[in-house]
Amino acid sequence: MFCRYFCFFSLCLFLPTQRRCSLGHISDLHGSDATSLPGFENLTMGYNKYLRPYFGGEPVQIAMSLDIASISSISESDMDYTATIYLRQRWTDPRLVFHGNKSFTLDARLVELLWVPDTYIVESKRSFLHDVTVGNRLIRLFSNGTILYALRITTTVACNMDLSKYPMDTQTCRLQLESWGYDENDVIFTWLRGNDSVHGIEKLRLSQYTVERYYTLVSKSQQETGSYPQLILQFELRRNVLYFILETYVPSTLLVMLSWVSFWITLDSVPARTCIGVTTVLSMTTLMIGSRSSLSKTNCFIKAIDVYLGICFSFIFGALVEYAVAHYSSSQKYAAKAPQEGPANELTKEMEEVNITNILNSSNTSYERKISFTSIEISSDNINCSDLTMKTHEKIKCVLRNKMHRIIGYFTIQNPSNVDHYSKLLFPLFFMLVNVFYWAYYLYF
């Protein structure tokens, strides 16, 4: 009984001043024709909000439209986005038909007395309805029984992202609207005007992304309890790479070029070349750590920016190793020119004393064989292994020693200064080729 009077007095507020409200009808002071207040008699005489329109008959057609007010944040680490939307739903309830061609905007609190669809946002993590200064809801009733129900919602929705091409990636996110309890036999979801049902998304200005395109879809969700209607708004976001070029790509490239400066410094300047190499390696390491700090939870992805930073680090480290090789070869060359003294000479003297003793205690033939064997052990040059006096195992040992010396000779740097000379050309050339393949792959494949 209380509900009957509450609805009555609430709806009377929308009547013109010339009309008078009574409990069961509406009388006009200027005429005898009675006109029903929109939905009043239905609300007070048999209207059941727990039953959908056309209950037991055809499904209810629910047309929807969206206004995207803002997309406040897109998180790669949490793989979601937060958006504020205006959701508008339209359906027809024949129990609320009244005479005339007017529409009435009712108090939003009266929505508790009407049947409304059980629409929810699929993959929503957090959502809330704005309530300042009152709940941001709109109920508008038309004479043919059509109801417009509008809501202002802020929601955080999951968006599965592929970050393998980060920061040159394009992400596809969805906003899916679905009926929670009513299957396709009870309700049917449609877009009010197709792609034109969505507004505001083309005007969004995001910090890192640009909306490439968007489109609407009508689908069904197959669940164990039935087939439920579903509407999908799908939009593609392309990341703006200019920020990352200025923040990461340019500094890392300059560090690689800085490491090449050591090629123009002489090999004798050990502190200068070592300082340049170590400084560039440490700076590159700091840059790599900083680039990953914002995506600490997505380290499972090998991203495009990680590949580029790894390439730059390899070239910088290679420049440092190049100086180590050149300096070592130079020091070995100088050591070879110096007089040989020490244990090697003592060994030679001992072997000479042994040979003299053998000469005195053996025959001339035995002496010649031992001299030949001693020369094989001591000499580091190629030896003629075709001597008929040599035994088979001595010949094999001689051939293997000659081949080892020949292989080592291929890798021996005769002029260490040529290492820097070739590095001045090869390092920039290879770096340019790697950049061409890198940018071509991640931009066009």
Low-confidence runs (pLDDT<50, min 5 residues)?
Answer: 1-37, 366-381
Shape: elongated
Radius of gyration: 43 Å
The arrangement of helices and strands along the chain is HEEHEEEEEEEEEEEEHHHHHHH
Number of helices: 9
- The total strand number stands at 14
* Mean pLDDT rating: 80
**Class by SSE composition:** alpha+beta
For this structure, the quaternary state is single chain
Distance between the termini: 70 Å
Question: What is the helical fraction, as a range of percent?
Answer: 25-40%
Main sheet properties: 8 strands, mixed
Q: What percentage of the residues does DSSP assign to strands (E)?
A: 25-35%
Family: Belongs to the ligand-gated ion channel (TC 1.A.9) family. Gamma-aminobutyric acid receptor (TC 1.A.9.5) subfamily. GABRP sub-subfamily.
Subunit structure: Heteropentamer, formed by a combination of alpha (GABRA1-6), beta (GABRB1-3), gamma (GABRG1-3), delta (GABRD), epsilon (GABRE), rho (GABRR1-3), pi (GABRP) and theta (GABRQ) chains, each subunit exhibiting distinct physiological and pharmacological properties.
Transmembrane segments: 241-263, 275-295, 307-325, 425-444
Keywords: Cell membrane, Chloride, Chloride channel, Disulfide bond, Glycoprotein, Ion channel, Ion transport, Membrane, Receptor, Signal, Synapse, Transmembrane, Transmembrane helix, Transport
